[in-house]
Design goal:
378 residues, three-stranded mixed sheet, flat, alpha+beta, 15 strands
């Protein structure tokens, strides 16, 4: 029988990427591994077949030749065993597979996990006002995290006693054992269960922390929030997270910023947007008004004949740049408020004004009806 297509063997499409190829191989390798299928010749054949397919498709040069010429392009390159790659080409992935099967891995490819380990990171969300986000602020927060037990100084052992070297692993934190497979003998490494990989055991645990060496404490931390932050900004505080393991450094604390909405202002990048209502008379005759900004009120002259929706720019009245240079602008959108509940005298005055002004003062209206005439011919 001829060889099956390598893509078909792994159950993947021809355009599959590296991760998809590796994922398919892992799944099939564990399914048909001879140690999980003793005395099953069919599983052994399939295992060799998927290994051969992976050896070619995981190598960019071989895959290119295979895609162009088929099996003839890689004839002799993959021979049903580990081919020319040897263990080096498969170390990482087979280490993972053997770890899943045997609880350990190749001693040559799996690093020891018994050394110092950095502590877990913490997250904290802080709500700040719109103005605090613009100009920066200082905050104090309370964070609950692990601290070394004061009773035992973090050893976990009762005061006056000490930890002992684990007799099971001899202090290494690992237990090594050999595993015979159809491909030879493998040395597997497993975390020592007697000491949980620490290499030491506590015969008399500290009562205060129950042998953990840690206690939960609440600590007040001062944070400086820079000018220009926005919702979603993250401030890292190095070394303010949870305690590390086996002498490892503390984790980090990440401050997530949430900016509360403002009654007047909205933010777009480093610019500030606000809407400002003016009367019909102010829009018609012009006026000097006081516009609110983040720095306080500023005077601005509304020109005569201002239309609703007109936007004015106040340079440099926006949000300071988070990078420390320059500020955005403030944009003020004018809305003309039409008067309501007029009395008879006020209405008569407006009617007299309309008669006196005629259509000449309404440019937009005249332009619109000119366009209507062009479209409908009337």
């Amino acid at each position: 029988m001829g060889k099956r297509d390598y893509y078909e063997v792994l159950g993947i499409q021809k355009g599959a990427n590296e991760q998809e190829i590796k994922k398919a191989f892992r799944k099939l390798a564990k399914q048909y591994h001879p140690d999980l299928n003793p005395d099953n010749k069919e599983a052994e054949v399939k295992f060799k077949e998927i290994n051969e397919a992976y050896e070619v498709l995981s190598n960019s040069d071989k895959r290119k030749r295979y895609d162009q010429f088929g099996h003839a392009g890689v004839n002799g390159q993959a021979g049903g065993g580990f081919g020319g790659q040897g263990f080096d080409g498969f170390g990482d992935i087979f280490g993972d597979i053997f770890g899943d099967i045997f609880g350990g891995g190749f001693s040559s490819s799996r690093s020891s996990k018994t050394g110092p380990r950095k502590g877990p990171d913490l997250k904290y969300r802080v709500n700040i006002s719109f103005k605090e986000a613009a100009f920066g602020t200082d905050k104090k927060i309370e964070v609950t995290r692990s601290e070394n037990c004061k009773e035992c100084n973090g050893t976990g052992a009762k005061p006056g006693t000490s930890k002992k070297t684990c007799s099971t692993c001899g202090g290494s934190g690992e237990v090594r054992y050999s595993q015979n497979t159809p491909f030879g003998q493998f040395v597997n490494v497993k975390t020592c269960e007697a000491c949980n990989g620490t290499g030491e055991v506590i015969e008399t645990p500290c009562k205060a922390c129950r042998g953990t060496g840690k206690q939960k404490k609440t600590k007040t931390i001062s944070i400086k929030i820079p000018a220009g932050v926005d919702t979603g900004s993250v401030i890292p505080l190095r070394g303010e997270g949870e305690l590390g393991e086996r002498g490892g450094s503390r984790g980090d604390l990440y401050i997530y910023i949430n900016v509360l909405s403002h009654k007047i202002f909205k933010r777009e990048g480093n610019d500030v947007i606000c809407e400002y209502p003016i009367t019909f008379v102010q829009a018609t005759l012009g006026d000097e008004v006081e516009v609110p900004t983040l720095d306080g009120k500023v005077k601005y002259k509304i020109p005569e004949g201002t239309q609703t929706g007109t936007v004015f720019r106040l340079r440099g009245k926006g949000i300071p740049s988070l990078r420390g240079y320059g500020r955005g602008d403030q944009y003020v959108k004018v809305n003309i408020e039409v008067p309501k509940n007029l009395n008879k005298k006020q209405k008569d005055i407006l009617r007299d004004f309309a008669k006196e002004a005629g259509e000449k003062v309404y440019e937009q209206k005249r332009s619109f009806f000119d366009k209507v005439k062009d479209v409908f011919g009337a």
